[in-house]
Amino acid sequence: MKVRALARALLAAAVLSVSCGRAAPLKLGRDLLPLEGSPLVCFRILVRVGSAHDPSGKEGLARLTWSLLAEGGSRSMSVRDIAEKLYPLAADLSLSVDKELSAFSGTVHRDNLERYYAVVKDMLLDPGFREDDFARVKADQLAFLEKTLVGDMDEQLGKEILNLMLYDGHPYGHHEAGTLESVAGLTLDDAKAFYREYFVQGNIVLGLAGGYPREFPDRIAADFARLPQTFTPRLVLPPARAARGLEFAIADKPTPATAISLGFPIALTRADKDFFALWIAQAHFGEHRQSLSLLTQKIREERGRNTGDYAYIEHFVQGRDKFPAPNHGRQQQYFSIWIRPLANADRHFVLRQALRELKKLVEDGLSEERFQLARSYLLRSTKLTAQTLDERLGWQMDAHYYGTDDILAAAEAVLPKLTRADVNKAIRKYLNFANAFVAVVTQDAEAFKSDLAADSPSPIKYANPNMPREVLDEDTAIQAYPLAVTADKVRTAPAAEFFRKAGLPWEQGRTDR
Amino acid sequence: MTGIIARTLVLCLCLGLGLAAPRGGAAGAAGTTTAAPQGGAAGAGGTTTAAPQGGIFPFAVKVETLENGLKVVSLPLSNPNIISYYTIVRSGSRNEIEPGKSGFAHFFEHMMSKGTKQVPRAAYGDFLARLGAGTNSATTDDFTCYSVVFAGRDSLENVVRTEADRFINLAPSEDMLRTEAAVIESEYYAGASDPARRLIETLRDTAFERHPYKHTTLGSLKDIQELPNQYEYSLLYKKRFFAPDNTILLVAGDFDPAQLAAFVRKYYGAWKISNYDLQTPVEPPQEKARRARIAGPAGAPARIAVGFHGPAFSDTAADKAALDLLAELSFASASPLYQKLVNKDRTCRSLTADFPDTRDPSLFVISAVVNNEGDLPTVEAEILKELERVKAEPAPAARLADVKSRRKYALARALETTDGAAATLAFYLNLTGDPGTVNRIFNLRDRVSPRDIQDAARKYFKPSNSATVTLTGEAAKGETP
To answer: Are A136 and B346 in contact (CB under 8 A)?
Structure first.
């Protein structure tokens, strides 16, 4: 009980110490989570700027600029000096860049706090902007787009193509790394200008957690006071376009396996009261990397088609273990299904199966049994979600970004009050099965296009000659499930064409984009 | 929220105590750990408490061995309500000694979720869902590990009962096996576009002749395609390796060790001993340098991997520990060579050295992703030059101290959560069966001298002991390997 009382006191201290960035947007925001006994100190320096702030034609600039801070030298230290100073501390400065938020983060032992902060302060506040660092970071970003994303990571490629489709012509509509064309044109002066405009006090929230000295946040604030006292207003975003029927983008490359991601925008974020109801639906239908996922049960467990199939009600980036990484908040979210790679021969069947399950979800909702199961799961699994100091800080900062209570704590209060009817109502309100964008990475794209347009039956073969009767019966329905696709809604292009220029390959060069 | 604060607070306080060791240098006081019993103490039936005071792994560990040989390691932590339950089966790729059976350990790991007569597959899934558990399983060269992480000490008996049933009474049908075999095939295809996997597959195949480390844990596609026909072998495999004398149970977190011991005796007591004597083929000494060249997909960056046969893991002999430190000194991000090739000249996109801790002698591998294919010979020459330099010049004391410091602080970070502590300990338990190994290996590394590193480099980094694989883009396909 003493521990609980102490924890409550600490929580109160943490809440009091938050100074809201919106109330004083011209100064550095703070989000503090002090824990006096902790031997660790976590930094999360959140910048309310991401790839959606990239100037037109300079896509990838936010990521390149922030990468130059995290991976380049400062004015007084070369990148080698920095590596040598941070190496013995087993601490570094990580970077995540999303559409509207970017975060520099690191965790250091309290023993090494001064040594660590001295380096990080220089990296962020006095960057070197050296030509050689710029050339290296830019080359890495180009290599990521050209070689890694298109060459080595078919699943990620599918997800990124889905994002291109979801937000075509929208500020979210390009990859954080930009395009080969746009990044090739970026200059060191572009990065300097971007830093000057956006790395300003009002855009930054200092997140600190753990056993730092009491006066430490003030010291950091004093250091950051050298940055301009300006801020960038939150982006006013146009609505994302809804799909009209099923719209396909198929990336063609030689591969034995097909990766599929599909989805559509949803008008819901963590700030909405329906979030928890839809969260239960997500746990039931596609809990990330858990066998609870209905899609995984149907596609993997019953039929052995791939290693797993999942669904998400917001943009998902995996952090520690299988939990979402913090600081990827967005004003607009999307629903998606991730079908892990499967044999090319199974692609049509499994796509039909996933969409048919989605239709059943929307039309029938959850059974009482599955509702109870998914809710029980969430009520207990949320207790495992934020275990490290860094995660707790990240979740706290996300709550403040969305203007909500701590979502994990709120879950304990809200979930028990929800009914199956609440969940099914939310499903009907936000989800649909008829209008979605489908991104596919596969071989012989034209052949798949023909299959889709013809809506031809797609039987599958099993190595097991004794498949259960009910599975085979369901297969009969799945293989003939009509997708109602027309050829004009299926576009194909070589995989390498997707991140060359802004927009989808068939729209590149369009002047009205 | 209060619950979460309390949980981390208490764990962090524990950590604070633990980290007094590296700060004060007490970690260097080797041998202060009370040794837990060595592996293979089947039938001993005794209980020993290991109290690793003064070590970098600061937590007290209790070990009990049941009559049937099942070793049970308790790691009580004060992080409220969270428990990590690990079943470590000491069977991995190294157990795949028969032809045509590569990848079987990994396949069997998949089969372990298929249920029993009492708790069929679907019921097992529902059990985990109600528990809100995070589950994971993984296969390595030497072991497979199954973890159930959950919040709720009141669920401990349920978890012990269900997991015991799963490991003792697993009874998948042949039909289930055939269906799961297809999952493995899709997993193989899913990584088909990953050039790093192809590089390491080829390197192992080139470097090893007889030892099962010749293949990766995923196995060959040919063997994977035979899995649907391996039902009989799967029964044999389970009988041999999924037995108490080949398994270690590790429970970490918020529970009463006496209660755990009672549950374990109750539910695992009837598990039948295997007594299977695995004879892993010994790799004959390599006599001359080996080379292979493979073609990657069009446009893929070039890659190189240089491997040297090295020693097995040891928490007593200095060779392995010395090479671990060498890997960091010569090839980590703070090393002069990394700075030159990756940051200054931008010849490479990455440069790493990896020398896994394994039960049998394994490969020390230096690998690089090279920006221009034409630079492959330069990069290879630079790597070999660095190894020659290490033989000739003792490592500067300050840099060696930096490497040791980094390893300790990195471990301290890993121990921040209950599951981090469990995963760390599970890994070392797999290697020796002895929880005292964690502190022994860190103490041993602390004692490694520049001379030890030179000696190890001279012993292992010989051309005749090496295997080199390069991967180039499709354009080079026509060239003779």
So the answer is: yes
DSSP code, position A233:
P
What span, in angstroms and rounded, lies between the C-alpha atoms of B293 and B291? 7
Who's near B374: CB < 8 A, 6+ residues apart? none
- β pairing state of A257-266 and B247-253: unpaired
A369 phi-psi bin (left φ>0, alpha ψ -120 to 50, beta other): alpha
Give the SS3 label for residue A131: helix
Residue B473: predicted pLDDT: 79
Residues within 8 A of A (CB atoms), B 276-335 only: 297, 299-301, 332-334
If one counts every other C-beta atom within 10 angstroms of the C-beta of residue A220, the result is 20
Residue of B nearest to A467 (CA): B175
In angstroms and rounded to an integer, the radius of gyration of the C-alpha atoms of chain B is: 23
Report whether A338 contacts A255 (CB < 8 A).
no
Q: Fold match between B2-268 and B290-478?
A: yes
B462–chain A nearest CA distance, Å = 29
What is A13-224's CATH number? 3.30.830.10
Closest CA to B247 of B72, B438, B434, B45: B72
Name residue A180's amino acid: L
Give residue-wise pLDDT tens across range A274-329: 999 999 999 999 999 988 999 999 999 999 999 999 999 999 999 988 889 999 99
- Residue B336, min C-alpha distance to chain A (Å): 8
Copy the structure tokens of residue B105.
Answer: 């350990």
Q: Could you say which residues of chain B have pLDDT below 70?
A: 1-54, 474-481
Torsion sign over Cα B392, B396, B399, B404 = positive
Look up the CATH superfamily of B2-268.
Answer: Metalloenzyme, LuxS/M16 peptidase-like (3.30.830.10)
* Interface contacts A/B by beta carbons within 8 Å: 262
Is the Cβ of A413 closer than 8 Å to some Cβ of chain B?
Answer: no
Helix (H) or strand (E) holding B302: strand B302-309
The yes/no answer to whether this complex scores an ipTM above 0.95 is no
Q: What is the pLDDT of residues A38-65, one digit of tens each?
A: 999 999 999 999 999 999 999 999 999 9
Taking Cα atoms as reference points, which of B83, B58, B104, B93 lies closest to residue B155?
Answer: B83
Residue in chain A closest to B133 (alpha carbons) equals A381
Beta-ladder partners of B47: B64
Q: Which residue in B has a C-alpha nearest to residue A110's C-alpha?
A: B16
Contact A376 B130 (CB under 8 A): yes
**Residue whose tokens read 């029964």:** B235
Of the candidates A380, A379, A411, the residue with the CA atom closest to the CA atom of residue A395: A411
Position A12 pLDDT exceeds 70:
no
User: Is B182 in the A-facing interface, judged by CB distances under 8 Å?
Assistant: yes
SS3 B151: strand
Query: Searching chain B, which residue's CA lies closest to the CA of residue A39?
Result: B16
Which CATH class name applies to B290-478? Answer: alpha beta
| Integer CA distances (angstroms), A492 to A169, A354, A443, A445, B131, in order | 19, 21, 11, 6, 44
The CATH number fitting domain A246-496, selected from 3.20.20.70, 3.40.50.10540, 3.40.640.10, 3.30.830.10? 3.30.830.10
More confident: A9 or A161: A161
Chain A: nearest CA to B223, how far in angstroms? 15
CB count within 10 Å of CB A467 equals 17
Does the CA dihedral A313-A59-A158-B125 come out positive or negative? Answer: negative
B13 and A135 in contact by Cβ < 8 A?
no
